[in-house]
Amino acid sequence: MADSSSSQSGGYDVEQFVNTPEYDLICTICHGVLRCPVRAACHHIFCKRCILQWLKRQETCPCCRKAVNQNRIFVMFKLSKSIGHMKIKCRNEILGCPETFPLAEQYRHSLRCAHELVPCPHQGCRAQLLRRDLEAHGGHCEHWRQPCPMGCGTVLSHRTQAQHNCYLQLRQEYALRQQNHRAIAAALQRKMQRMQSTMAHMKRQIGLICESLEVMDDLQEEEEGDQGDQGEASTSTSGL
Ligand SMILES: [Zn+2]
Ligand SMILES: [Zn+2]
Ligand SMILES: [Zn+2]
Ligand SMILES: [Zn+2]
Ligand SMILES: [Zn+2]
């Protein structure tokens, strides 16, 4: 218990770093890498929290025993920044994350680390999973809820989703079918109109043919009448 609280308030775990940190970056109080380093008047450097906690018990430097004034310790911003550039391994390395990154980017990485343990986002679900398994879990989570995508207002779970007989969907399908039927009817009507106009055209043509046949009949009759008169003349010509 004492161990976990000291690691929380103290420096960074040395094991976390890709390369073993230099000796002068280690806090002599917590033995971790300096977190928010401060320098006392005696020039010894500690994590800010470590030395403030130490000074509650005794007001001397843990290294050299010189008196330390709590109001005369200074934050070392440059050192803090260069420690922030040091490469660390992901804290989820044991869960399978192979990534390394500068210490300062630890938080940003944790927001997208596929091996970070995160709670299921569905209300009422107490499952904790690796971020990469979240989607698969969502596929069968008992607490998964989603409003019907058709917009009918029904909230669906995985169990009710398959049985949901959405009236909006039925209505849409019906409207679609009706639209289809209307389109077919319109196409048929256009076809009929085309056939009607073809028929009218044919009727006119037949009329014309009939007319010309009548004219030919008349001509033939006339011709036959003429032939009776000119019978002799035509036989004499063919005889030549
Ligand atoms: Zn410390
Ligand atoms: Zn000192
Ligand atoms: Zn990670
Ligand atoms: Zn869940
Ligand atoms: Zn619905």
TrEMBL record:
Region feature Disordered, mapped onto this chain: 220-240
Keywords: Metal-binding, Zinc, Zinc-finger
GO MF assignments: zinc ion binding
Record bears the keyword Metal-binding: yes
Acidic residues compositional bias, start-end: 220-229
Highest taxon, organism lineage: Eukaryota
Coiled-coil blocks: none
UniProt-listed Gene3D superfamilies: Zinc/RING finger domain, C3HC4 (zinc finger) (3.30.40.10)
Keyword Zinc-finger annotated: yes
InterPro entries in the cross-refs: Znf_RING, Znf_RING/FYVE/PHD, Znf_RING_CS, Znf_TRAF
Zinc finger residue extent: TRAF-type: 109-152
Domain RING-type positions: 27-65
TRAF-type domain: residues covered: 109-152
SUPFAM superfamilies recorded: RING/U-box (SSF57850), TRAF domain-like (SSF49599)
Protein name in UniProt: Ring finger protein 151
